[in-house]
Amino acid sequence: MVTEEKGTLSIHTENIFPIIKKFLYSDHEIFLRELVSNAVDATQKLNRLAALGEYKGKIGDTKIKVSIDEKAKTITISDKGIGLTTDEIKKYINQIAFSGAAEFVEKYKDKGEEKQIIGHFGLGFYSSYMVAKKVEIFTKSYQTGAEAARWECDGSTDFEITPTKKKDRGTDIVLHIAEDSEEFLQKHRLQGILDKYCKFLPIEIEFDGKVVNNPSPIWTKQPSELKDEDYLNFYKELYPFAEDPLFWIHLNVDYPFNLTGVLYFPKLKNELDVQRNKIQLYSRQVFITDEVKDVVPEFLMLLHGVIDSPDIPLNVSRSYLQSDGNVKKINTYITKKVADKLGDLFKKDRAGYEKKWNDIGLFVKYGMISEEKFYEKALDYTLVQDIDDKFYTLKEYEEHVKPNQADKDGNTVFLYTTKQAQQHSYIENARKREYGVLKMDGQLDSHFINHMEMKMEKVNWKRVDADVLDKLIDKDEKKESVLSEAEQTTVKELFDKAINNKAFTVNVEAMSTDDMPVVITLPEFMRRMKDMSAMGGGMAMMGNMPDAYSVAVNGNHALVGKILKAKTEEEKTDLAKQAFDLAKLSQNLLTGPELTAFIKRSLDIVSA
Question: Nucleotide-binding: present as a keyword of the record (predicted)?
């Protein structure tokens, strides 16, 4: 029998409600998540008791209903779960932080119940005081002969329990919304919260006359039950405006930790930052966060999808991850699953894998740079693409170019281009020697090249325009110069005078007659540091360093001979300036007044 009672909540501080409101929960909107989750717990407990034969009544409709009364300024969350007796109200509501879910799990843990109950902390109910000035509970236990009770508290430490009338078992929680929280009385506001936190809760939730959740998302099912269409439809449910994913991984493990989920590989399109925060973390189908950096390795943050695990420790508000051994194990497991999936795709359908490479290459390279364990596996299926659009694994490419691209010290040189159109003349010179050139124009490629050069023995990576070819792949084959030492000195002086810029260091060299007359290069080390600085690679100071270019004048080119034979100093200087500007033009360094002067000079030469 329910008797009227007044009393004081059993807590250790008079200021528990201000603490809850201001500090315990980081976002006020999660009050609805907590109350609906509690309603789910109560319903699942009833289902479990019925399955064990401890509840013999009719279960009936178990929908959880969320409703708003704008006139009364109330929000009500109603369930038809196990309800509470007066003694249970005193025990679970009045004694803050004593969790009913925890006791239920302890009682039924040998029967597998611990995997089904959401609540852990006993504080979820009190999140209601973040938005409510008064809370009422109307509840009736499932137990035979139980009487309905009403509990009320205005946010102070005083409560009141009185008898009430309630026909059905279950609990109605009525929040009398405070003035500073009346935004939550708007339908679209509550709909948004339900969509965010309760979209996949395992019991149907009704709001505004319709069910708003999917109680059986695909990660709760076995892969054998699902078709490709199911995975694609679920992806659209998560990301309505996204392109279809490339492929996916279904996670399903119950030892040494419990983890389910589906991770999708999106089309990255060389975008490293835009795609982040797309993995959603759930605990027993309750949305927790999309900040999963502790659970998922950094490079896997580029993936999309869902991870659900009751074994990831959360703080009392279920809002923040707490790092521990399980988190590290889960992190390692996910890395392995992703690496194995990529390996399987490569082995089973290499042609299909190559077609996807431009979308997943960024992701794989990021993983190789940042995760050693992933690197070890990915080495076998990381691809490079040459300028003829042929794909190789790193080992295949090394074997392919080694016979022709080994230098005098036995190092194999990988030539690459970052801007194929701009570096076309350098690429064509390499083609004449039958040298291979790789396309390395991705967002992470400067970092990837540095990483691979440290990892691969006897392999050097050099950009095709970083120097003259005979220096890029130095085979110790000395070419004879057609110029005397005196003529070389004269040529150097002519070009120094024509250039008149200390940023350019001139050297006259014996090169092939079909090489360019003048080649301008930025030293490989400095160029790499500048590339990494542009990517934000911890080399910011290099981006501000003045450029220092090398100018290689091909003493064996016919144009140099023509310069020496010119009749006047002015003609010699003009020809030297023209040859230098051509080299600048090929490196996209000729702009402004210099470009205008070059065009005028070219017209004068053609018209002469």
Answer: yes
Which ranges of 323-406 does DSSP label H, i.e. alpha helix? 325-348, 350-370, 372-378, 394-401
Judge contact between 243 and 267, C-beta under 8 A: yes
The dihedrals phi and psi of 326, each to the nearest 5 degrees, come to -65, -40
CA dihedral (38, 39, 43, 46) positive or negative:
positive
CB within 8 A of 297, min separation 6: which ones? 331, 334, 335, 367, 370, 371, 374
In angstroms, rounded to a whole number, what is the distance separating the alpha carbons of residues 317 and 310? Answer: 15
**Distances, alpha carbon 417 to alpha carbons 100, 426, 430, 548, in Å:** 64, 9, 11, 20
Q: Which residues contact 484 (CB under 8 A, 6 or more apart)?
A: none
Domain 218-347 top-level CATH class = alpha beta
Asked whether residue 487 carries a pLDDT value surpassing 80, the answer given is yes
Maximum average pLDDT range among 163-177, 238-252, 479-493 = 163-177
- Residue type, position 569, single letter: E
Per-residue pLDDT band for 384 (boundaries 50, 70, 90) equals: very high
Highest mean predicted confidence (pLDDT) among 263-277, 437-451, 574-588: 437-451
> What does the pLDDT average to over 405-426?
92
Q: 502 by DSSP, 3-state: which?
A: coil
- Lowest mean per-residue pLDDT among 91-100, 388-397, 416-425, 568-577: 91-100
- Is 244 in a helix, a strand, or coil? coil
Of the pLDDT bands very low, low, confident and very high (cuts 50, 70, 90), residue 317 is very low
Question: Using an 8 Å Cβ cutoff, are 435 and 397 in contact?
Answer: no
Report the run of H or E that residue 141 belongs to, with start and end.
none
Residue closest to 125 by CA, chosen among 102, 100, 149:
100
Do the Cβ atoms of 96 and 11 come closer than 8 Å?
yes
DSSP run (H or E) holding 133: strand 132-140
- The domain 485-607: what is its CATH number? 1.20.120.790
Highest CATH level, class, for 383-472:
alpha beta
Asked whether the predicted pLDDT for residue 23 surpasses 50, the reply is no
The mean per-residue pLDDT over the stretch 126-153 comes to 92
**According to the 3-state scheme, what is the secondary structure of 185-208?**
HCHHHHHHHHHHHCCCCCCCEEEC
Spatial separation of the C-alpha atoms in residues 4 and 6, rounded to whole Å: 7
User: Any idea where the domains of the chain sit in the sequence?
Assistant: 5-209, 218-347, 383-472, 485-607
Residues 6+ apart with CB under 8 A from 500: none
Alpha helices in 121-265 (DSSP H): 187-197, 228-238
In CATH, which of 3.90.226.10, 3.40.50.1110, 3.30.565.10, 1.10.150.130 is domain 5-209? Answer: 3.30.565.10
- Separation CA 467–CA 550 (nearest Å): 8
Per-residue pLDDT at 466: 84
Given a contact cutoff of 8 angstroms between Cβ atoms, the answer to whether 429 and 515 are in contact is yes
pTM: 0.77
- Collapse the DSSP code of 422 into the 3-class scheme (helix H, G, I; strand E, B; otherwise coil) and give the result: coil
> What does DSSP say about strands 412-417 and 437-439: parallel, antiparallel, or unpaired?
parallel
Residue 245 and residue 264 in contact, taking contact as beta carbons nearer than 8 Å = yes
Q: Find out whether 204 and 211 touch, Cβ atoms under 8 Å.
A: yes
